[in-house]
Fold each of these.
Amino acid sequence: MAWLQLKIDSSKTDADRIEAALELVGAGAIVMEDAADQPLFEPPLGTTPLWDATRIVALFTIDSDMEAILEFLNEHVAGGLPSHRVEILEDQIWERAWMDHYHPMCFGERLWVVPSWTPPPQPNAINLLLDPGLAFGTGTHATTALCLQWLDGLDLQDKVVVDYGCGSGILAIAALLLGAKHAYCVDLDPQALLATKDNAARNGVANKMTVCFPDAMPAIQADVVVANILAGPLAELAPVLANLCLGGGDLALSGIIDSQVDELIVVYAPWFTLDQLKTKDENWCRLSGKRLNSSHN
């Protein structure tokens, strides 16, 4: 059957109160969405963070009295109901619709990311099998895409790679499929580490991967270090990432917007020369460059 869908634009501070009011008025389902393309990386364990601009989507049966529902919400939400709209949602097979939305994607010259239910468009290419999940990183976000394109352009044969803030493990798995001999995957989120292990096993590279929390990371130096996080954590991690990278090794940083680039270049200058930034989807950037030899430190 069809449904009535109510979309409400909220701030993260008001979202919980609006959700509670929707539950009182009998919403059949309530979902929180990002309303401004703001990724949430590595939330603290046990927390459920919301976006600064949060869209709340609630479903009601088609015969619901929406006028009465809106009147109730307007009275029970402090300050009145924010900007909203009502739509008719036609019935469909939701699992099929979700699957149809996620397609194989090509990054660079050799690398494809392919969902499990779709045949690889180029069977002889390097095909990374990955389905959307709880951990960040499927290739659909600009920050991940920028890193995948960078990895595809490197000579990774027999290289050691560190993926710091690994999320789904997509970058480390891509590096291994592109020829790296070992990858170290680091994340604060237990779900990310579990997803990384599962995805590595699916792609047949689990035996070439070390997965750990930051405090368990071994004291190694890698040929390639990639970190797709956010500017704040990247600035704090500069000495850590520098210690993990061999002299002359490659570094890529992503999860950065235009206004944060200059500051990060300065922060990393004692250890790295960072090349021209690459942009995708307007504001998202990637910085990449070479580790200076130890004599420069």
Note: Residues 3-91 form a domain with the Alpha-Beta Plaits fold (CATH 3.30.70.120).
Amino acid sequence: MKKYLRTYGSLLPVFVFFSMLLVPSLSSGQASMEPLFEEGNTAYNEGDYSKAISLYEQTLKLGQHSAALYYNLGNAYYRLNKVAESIYYFEKAKLLNPKDKDLQINSAFARNMTIDAIEFLPESQLTQLKNRLFNSFSFYTWSIMTVVLLWIFVGLFLGYLLFKSTQLKRSFFFSSLVVLVLFSGSFLITFSIDQQKKNTQFGILFSNQIDIWSEPNQQGELLFTLHEGTKVQLLDNLEEWQKIRIANGSEGWIKNASLRKLSDDLK
């Protein structure tokens, strides 16, 4: 696996422009987290992966949840041959930065360590187009774009109301219409992504081996067996039973499974 450590660039410039009052507190928090993160990177480069994990997890406890941090945690756990932990953190990093090529490569290396070889269901062209559009930016970036477009629309519309020149009013009016269309599209995408995240929960199995049943009881049919590191979609639960779906579309129930939701603690 390629060893690659970095801190991703900030996506905040426009947001900060509209949130100047928050800058002192944000800067103070970032300053307290950065030394731990850098110490973790140093430990990783020295081959002390356990120490690096400890420092990265301390950073998480301080409230920093970034693609770079999850990426580095995934790398460190991979070096210790901890399959489930490695995949878990790579998947969390992909939620925040799905287009990163190094992350995709390292995540693929980690998945190759799993026992279960699960083929993905083919996607329709419409689904592929929608996913490319939704994943062209992170949810956070879509949110910022939506807010910025709203402010631009308000500014242009105020210009239309305040200026007396017919030519200027026409320019402001049509510009505001264009921005309104862009805002509407950005808002719909942001809302759709938010609803999809709320209604679609995924987790990583940490159980070494677990049976999947056709019903939430062991009187049903034993369908198949899964192993640690497998990504599952969480569909339903009933007491100690959890209904899941895997990438090939197969569904079933698991009992008392050790799994961690990818949405847990994600900021």
Note: The mean pLDDT is 84.
Amino acid sequence: MPMIEKIQALARHAGQMMLSYRDAAIHQKEGHYNFVTDADVAVQQFLKAELLSLLPGSRFFAEEQENDPLTDQPTFIVDPIDGTLNYMRHRNASAVSIALAEKKQPVMGVIYNPYADEMFSAEKGKGAYLNGGRIAVSDTAFGSAMVSIGTSPYDPDLARRTLKAALRFLLEAGDLRRTGSAALDLCDVACGRADIFYELCLRPWDVAAGALLVAQAGGVFVSLGHDAPYFESASGILACNPACLAKAKRILEEETA
């Protein structure tokens, strides 16, 4: 079985683990409105054991642990439940996100939404897929664009800059959406359900798989302030279809500096 299919199978199992928990215990993390549940921890422990055995000699970099800096070694970058607050509040908008990185860049990515039974996957140079069917970003022009945002509630300054930019997008593009899961927002851009997504501070586990999906679906993923995707630490990000790139990037440069 190809590696990507093995990762998909583990993501599916992890998603079923998510659904099997009922009212998992909730714990406060550092920062405003930042939480972890026992389900996050259990899913991560499962994925760590299985992924490392899948590729001996690989490393594991994930949200619910202390991480050493990324190296050039093959590394699984994992968010066991992206959208934990949604998960806590039973909003049915959370996902398992798994990327395999080589030389700090994702080469395989899988995002599984167990609520919708949607399996997104991509391999570098091989396109992006949803439940086995090829997907592509939209060709919607900026003036009609659906814009998804992440609000960075844990950082007041970032939140203010985010919403300042959001007003520009609302007035100059189409409409706004806020899902509460960066992984699912990136999937939406990759398959054309949204045209632009931005957030001013995300971690590697939030974006590694989704960034590859967007790129392999014909879209653009850039780390704000960098010339290329950057997965070593926290970074602001923009993902969009090519038609929206210039205007979206200009708004973010003008309103979030």
Note: The chain has two domains: 3-134, 142-255.
Amino acid sequence: MKVALIQTRTPATQDAGLAHVLPMVRKAALSGACFIATPEGTNLLQKDRDLLLPMLKPVGEDVVVGGLRAAALEFGVWILIGSALVKREDGKAANRSVLISPQGAIVATYDKLHMFDVDLPTGESARESATYEPGDRAVTARAGDLKLGMTVCYDLRFPGLYRALALAGAEVMTIPAAFTRPTGAAHWEILMRARAIETGSFILAPAQGGRHEDGRGTYGHSLVVAPWGEIIAQLDHDDPDVLLADLDLEASAQARAAIPNLVNDRAFSAPHALTEKAVLT
């Protein structure tokens, strides 16, 4: 099955975001992709909270979501909006992954569970929880023959989530991202390969890349990892682009049969917390 990952450098407004992503989605569809995935923050990226919040719309009113629903219908393809930054039903903000069918219908959504609240050694800091309300549930969904586990960016660092998705039947983990440049250079590839190997799953990781209008820098290097851990497609840069890959959908079952760690797991008691150094006598 041919899939496409869209690597973007999303602007700071929804109208500009749609104009940016739509030509690449069209290119991917015309190249034969049946499933197209975009990065985190596909509709807009604006790190200034005071500028961002007034622009957010409910998912049904967002111009990028609407435009990509129309594109899915026009080309007869599945589109995963890696995430759209939207207003929830309760008025709070959400970082929401949206799966669109070839009929243009929204068939599944997932709100990012883990908030990126960090202080990096480089001096960069982020407090995603100050803007977004985290989700409270893991989500699996079918996209034709693909059995998806839907996640977003920082979720990558929580392997228990991916194990739960795999045990629920997911064979393809979607990890759309807007990774920072320092964490991307250090951890992007190795963490993606680890999640693939641990769960015997394909990893589809479309990424934001480059220097954005709001001043942030993102890593790019979108990639596809097979269930045995090998990278089968990857961009070696941070520029907007389309990455195509052919998935052998039998590979997940083969990897899980070879290394059956999903069924070999055992319950155990949690260790006591280490509160002080042991004293040798």
Note: The chain has one domain: 2-264.
